[in-house]
Specification:
By secondary structure, the chain is mainly alpha-helical. It has 2 domains: 30 residues; 68 residues, no CATH class. The longest helix has 26 residues. About 18% of the residues have low confidence. This is DUF732 domain-containing protein. It holds the Pfam family DUF732. InterPro entries: DUF732, TAT_signal. Keywords: Signal.
Length: 109
Protein backbone atom coordinates (compact mmCIF):
# COMPACT_ATOMS: atom_id res chain seq x y z
CA UNK A 1 0.00 0.00 0.00
CA UNK A 2 1.43 3.41 -0.94
CA UNK A 3 2.43 5.77 1.87
CA UNK A 4 -0.24 8.30 0.84
CA UNK A 5 -2.99 5.68 1.31
CA UNK A 6 -1.65 4.69 4.73
CA UNK A 7 -1.61 8.36 5.80
CA UNK A 8 -5.21 8.76 4.54
CA UNK A 9 -6.27 5.57 6.35
CA UNK A 10 -4.73 6.78 9.63
CA UNK A 11 -6.52 10.12 9.30
CA UNK A 12 -9.83 8.39 8.59
CA UNK A 13 -9.31 6.07 11.54
CA UNK A 14 -8.41 8.98 13.84
CA UNK A 15 -11.45 10.91 12.65
CA UNK A 16 -13.74 7.92 13.22
CA UNK A 17 -12.25 7.38 16.68
CA UNK A 18 -12.84 11.04 17.56
CA UNK A 19 -16.44 10.87 16.39
CA UNK A 20 -16.96 7.69 18.40
CA UNK A 21 -15.46 9.29 21.52
CA UNK A 22 -17.70 12.35 21.20
CA UNK A 23 -20.75 10.15 20.67
CA UNK A 24 -19.89 8.03 23.69
CA UNK A 25 -19.38 11.14 25.83
CA UNK A 26 -22.82 12.42 24.87
CA UNK A 27 -24.48 9.09 25.57
CA UNK A 28 -22.68 8.59 28.88
CA UNK A 29 -23.05 12.14 30.16
CA UNK A 30 -25.33 12.39 33.17
CA UNK A 31 -28.77 13.67 32.37
CA UNK A 32 -29.74 17.00 33.85
CA UNK A 33 -31.43 16.48 37.18
CA UNK A 34 -35.16 16.91 36.82
CA UNK A 35 -36.55 18.48 39.95
CA UNK A 36 -39.68 17.30 41.70
CA UNK A 37 -42.51 19.64 42.62
CA UNK A 38 -41.34 19.50 46.24
CA UNK A 39 -37.81 20.48 45.20
CA UNK A 40 -39.19 23.34 43.12
CA UNK A 41 -41.19 24.49 46.15
CA UNK A 42 -38.04 24.33 48.28
CA UNK A 43 -36.05 26.44 45.81
CA UNK A 44 -38.91 28.95 45.56
CA UNK A 45 -39.10 29.20 49.35
CA UNK A 46 -35.33 29.69 49.64
CA UNK A 47 -35.38 32.33 46.92
CA UNK A 48 -38.18 34.18 48.71
CA UNK A 49 -35.99 34.16 51.85
CA UNK A 50 -33.08 35.67 49.91
CA UNK A 51 -31.12 32.41 49.77
CA UNK A 52 -29.63 31.72 46.38
CA UNK A 53 -27.09 29.45 44.78
CA UNK A 54 -26.97 26.52 42.40
CA UNK A 55 -30.31 24.73 42.65
CA UNK A 56 -28.71 21.27 42.67
CA UNK A 57 -26.54 22.24 45.64
CA UNK A 58 -29.41 23.76 47.57
CA UNK A 59 -31.60 20.73 46.91
CA UNK A 60 -28.79 18.42 47.96
CA UNK A 61 -28.39 20.43 51.18
CA UNK A 62 -32.13 20.16 51.83
CA UNK A 63 -32.15 16.40 51.37
CA UNK A 64 -29.05 16.12 53.60
CA UNK A 65 -30.93 18.08 56.28
CA UNK A 66 -33.82 15.62 56.08
CA UNK A 67 -31.43 12.69 56.38
CA UNK A 68 -29.69 14.29 59.38
CA UNK A 69 -32.99 14.88 61.15
CA UNK A 70 -34.17 11.36 60.32
CA UNK A 71 -30.98 10.15 62.03
CA UNK A 72 -31.87 12.10 65.15
CA UNK A 73 -30.21 15.49 64.71
CA UNK A 74 -32.13 18.29 66.38
CA UNK A 75 -33.40 20.91 63.88
CA UNK A 76 -31.96 23.73 66.02
CA UNK A 77 -28.52 22.11 66.01
CA UNK A 78 -28.83 21.52 62.28
CA UNK A 79 -29.69 25.18 61.71
CA UNK A 80 -26.66 26.26 63.76
CA UNK A 81 -24.43 23.92 61.74
CA UNK A 82 -25.89 25.15 58.44
CA UNK A 83 -25.37 28.77 59.52
CA UNK A 84 -21.76 28.06 60.47
CA UNK A 85 -20.93 26.14 57.26
CA UNK A 86 -22.82 28.31 54.77
CA UNK A 87 -20.93 31.45 55.65
CA UNK A 88 -23.16 33.92 53.85
CA UNK A 89 -26.48 33.20 55.59
CA UNK A 90 -28.00 34.92 58.57
CA UNK A 91 -29.25 32.86 61.50
CA UNK A 92 -32.82 33.56 60.36
CA UNK A 93 -32.05 32.31 56.83
CA UNK A 94 -30.45 29.14 58.20
CA UNK A 95 -33.57 28.55 60.32
CA UNK A 96 -35.76 29.12 57.27
CA UNK A 97 -33.69 26.71 55.16
CA UNK A 98 -34.14 23.97 57.76
CA UNK A 99 -37.85 24.71 58.24
CA UNK A 100 -38.42 24.81 54.48
CA UNK A 101 -36.61 21.48 54.10
CA UNK A 102 -38.90 20.00 56.74
CA UNK A 103 -41.98 21.45 55.04
CA UNK A 104 -41.04 20.77 51.41
CA UNK A 105 -38.62 17.85 51.30
CA UNK A 106 -38.69 15.69 54.40
CA UNK A 107 -41.15 12.78 54.50
CA UNK A 108 -44.12 13.73 56.64
CA UNK A 109 -43.08 17.40 56.51
Amino acid sequence: MPASHRKHDRRALASAASALAVGAAILLAPAAHATTNAEDDYINDLTAAGIDGPADSLISDGHAMCAAMASGMDPNDLSATYYKNAGSLSHAQADLAVNDAIKDLCPGG
